[in-house]
Amino acid sequence: MSTPAAPSTCESAETVLDVRDLVTSFPGPNRRIAVVDGVDLTISRGETLALVGESGCGKSLTALSILRLVPKPGRIDRGTVRLGGRDLRALPVAELRRVRGHEISMIFQEPMTSLNPVVTVGKQVIEAIRLHERVSSALARRRALALFEQVGIPDPASRLDAFPHQLSGGMKQRVMIAMALAARPSVLIADEPTTALDVTIQGQILDLLREVRDLLGTAILLITHDLGIVNELADRVAVMYAGRLVEVGMRTDILSAPRHPYTQGLLRSMPARARRGERLTEIAGVVPPPGQWPTGCRFAPRCTRAFDPCARIDPGPTRLSANHTAWCHAVAREEGSPPAGGAPA
Amino acid sequence: MEPYLLSNAVVVALLAGLGAALVSAGRSRVWRDAGRELVRRRPIALAILLAYVAIGLLDSLAWVSGSSGGAMPGGDTVSLHKPRSAIDRLFPDDSYREKSYSAPLAEREFLGGAPLRHPGRHLLGTDILGRDVLYQTLKGARVALLVGGFTTLIVIPLALLFGVVAGYFGGRVDDVIFFLISTLASMPGLLLLIALIMVLGRGPVQVCVALGVTGWVGFARVVRGETLKLRELDYVHAARALGASDARIVLRHIVPNLMHLVVITFVLTFSGLVLSEAVLSWLGIGIDGSWGRMIDQARDELSRDPIIWWNLVSASFALFGLILAVNLLGDAVRDILDPRTLRERA
Amino acid sequence: MWAYVVRRLAYSLVTVLGVLFLLFVLFFLVTNPDDIARKAVGEKAPPQALEQWKKNHGYDKPRFWNREQPTDSMLVDHFRRMLTFEFGNSDADDTPIWRRLRSGAGPSLSLSLPLFTLGLLLTISLGLLVAFFRETYIDRMGVILCVLAMSVSTVLYIIGGQYLIARVLRWFPISGFDPSPAVIGRFLAVPVLVGLLSNVGDSVRFYRAVFVEESSRDYVRTARAKGCGEARILSHHVLRNSLVPILTQVVVAIPQLVMGSILLESFFGIPGLGSITFDAINANDFATLRTMVYLGSLLFILGQILTDVSYTLVDPRVRLE
Lengths: 345, 346, 321
Prior knowledge:
Strand order of the largest sheet of chain A: 6-7-8-3-9-10-13-12
Radius of gyration of chain B: 24 Å
Number of strands of chain B: 2
Distance between the termini of chain A: 42 Å
CATH architecture of the largest domain in chain A: 3-Layer(aba) Sandwich
Order of helices and strands of chain B: HHHEEHHHHHHHHHH
Largest sheet of chain B: 2 strands, antiparallel
CATH class of the domain at 145-298 in chain B: Mainly Alpha
CATH topology of the largest domain in chain A: Rossmann fold
Shape of chain B: elongated
CATH superfamily of the largest domain in chain A: P-loop containing nucleotide triphosphate hydrolases
Structural class of chain A: alpha/beta
Oligomer: heterotrimer
Helix content of chain B: 55-70%
Largest interface: B-C, 40 and 42 residues
Order of helices and strands of chain A: EEEHEEHEHHHHEHEHEEHHEEEHE
Helix content of chain A: 25-40%
């Protein structure tokens, strides 16, 4: 894999975003299902945290919950989302709107449909500026132009008046990033920003995100299922499975020495690691659909190291080092601590 | 056969056909679930609609009674052998009529105060010719069912035929049919309707035919669009590769997948047709005995002093009740049969 | 784009010919000229009077093909005259149809234009309002009211409106028309109100559905993430993207405004084209009726072309080639 990310910040650096016990649920056939089931995240200033997992594990909804953008009939049931001391969940809507786009920005996966098709991209970026600052439209336009240059859009002056359908996917995503940075947020949430783009463009966007991090000092919450991207950008990594965190740690720890069986399985199954002629390894079984999760550890049915408490008790966090935690009974046993965890099933 | 008896036969045939369709739909789980969902969501609207259908059906079952029970003063012997429906028999025969207006449950005539022949028995009063208003209102149900049901019987097969043929075969055939559809669609609906009725005559059958001719175009366009989509589905390609004939593909693969549209359209156009008939009655070219005709005949009575309101109100509520029930059911049906939710439930 | 318009016009001409043919079939083949003549001249009229009437109104010619003069048949006549807007005289009272059209256009527009614009403003505003409050009580009440309003026949709105406003409250005259600007409003108030009421249920429901559908799109989510308030989202983002389905319903009706509403005009005594059509029904005036259907079709086709052109004004993705 290519150049690693810049040296990671350590925990004592200022915490910008602190999410505790976030629970977001959707109505199911019989009762509500917690699709995000008690997630804790912290991001420090200038740090990039990657939230990793397969499709459907709840990572996107976690991101949406931070900004209270969960679509109905979903609902955030529990938890606190502290941004610089304030709990975003407790804010009245008018204040939340001031936070959105200004202190925390978000970019989405599908640039094709995430931009208003009948308004020029320039106007949309200008809107992002003028929603949060009182500036004249002329000044806002100059700022938009500068942003376009910053994100690497060629011929920015004429592009300001272009409509989204006249731009390529990569260009649209750059516009999204420009829009997200327009009001100078301290946190940028990027929900699978490169998944819908061509491979060649992916690299360019990743470079751009790296610049954003390095030059502007913006903290980034990067949602992805691609471990290659994690390696390119992340300082810290959080792995999610079936609505819960299973392992959190520094990038080097997670990618080189993962402890949780799921993380280990993910890394083993990467095609890049396979040798020619070998079978690709896979994790046996399938992800259980929401609401049909087993009792105890949700990964237990697919886990090669499952033993007695795994099917009965939810594993609690096992602290492996200052920055590395895993939720697994097997890991706990290795560390010599008793199987910590929630109540038995 | 007398037109009256013919239309009775049509109503009974319609309802029998509907019953048969329901039975055959009941065999498929998707339709059964949809039906159950409909009952769950709109029990009241369904009950109201069934009440109307029951009244219409009762009014269509007519027979001649064996012996009349003594001569009636002023009645002629011919009418003794006229078939009378179940609704007719709820009311004593023609001498139930009064001379003219009377208010609901009144004992005396409205104009002049002479005592009525059947004091206190007219629950909704009588109209200018002394006819019982409740009786007329009940009979209007059958007309409404005829208008809605018979016309839809014309609309849906026409639209399916042209739409499927145009969508499936494409090319020249499609061009011709599409030209026909857009030509008809270019003619303003009400005006074309009026023109058709003026030209064809003002009888009930002609009115239904006119409504049908003006109504099939919209649905045909939708069918054509859906057929175009269905034609490109993989299993249709597969069937063709296996050598299935066009007729077989159309009948077994395309039409069944249009059924949900048929049901939705049927319910939604029903209320539109009944309302159109009311407008036609207003313009003088509707069907005799319909609520629209009652309203038309009653419109001047509001200007009388003291006003005569009961026949207008009765017909209005009858019309409103049916339309509202059908609209509510139509919404529910459309939601239930939405292809997205159908797929989820399957 | 002009190439597109020209092509559409050419196709429309073919459609117009189709319409004319259909009208020919209806009015000349299915109907019997003797019946029309008898209704116009009288049941007991002598045959010569009938023949003379038929001759005057062009009903005596052979239907398709005239052996002596190939272009002198009812078919050719019909096409030629309609395409040159030579409508002739009414079957009922022999007055030139054009004169009646000219006199009726003004009153029709004086009712239909205010009704149309007010209706549009009202229903779109209500639709936005209900969409703003979607999934709340206001929304649910709104939808129920719409369904109730839709289920009442226009006929009943007319009767009820006239009764309540003109008779009971006596705010406005019961019917009639006076074009002088000082009093014209008084005569139009009740018909406009009744017209608005009878359409509001259906239209608001439609607009609400369009707005709610657009509100679930991705770009709305982006706008929200930028910090846009719900009100701004509806008015700036959703409304602009909803214009295509709205225009589809709205623009097509504009040319036909001149035809007027048959119901409203006949009931409220407004001497517009709708009234003329109503009179034609009662008098069995096929010539006038024919003309009305033809004009209505022309205006509808024009409306369709205008609709397509209007899309280019609101949606930059639409290019008419």
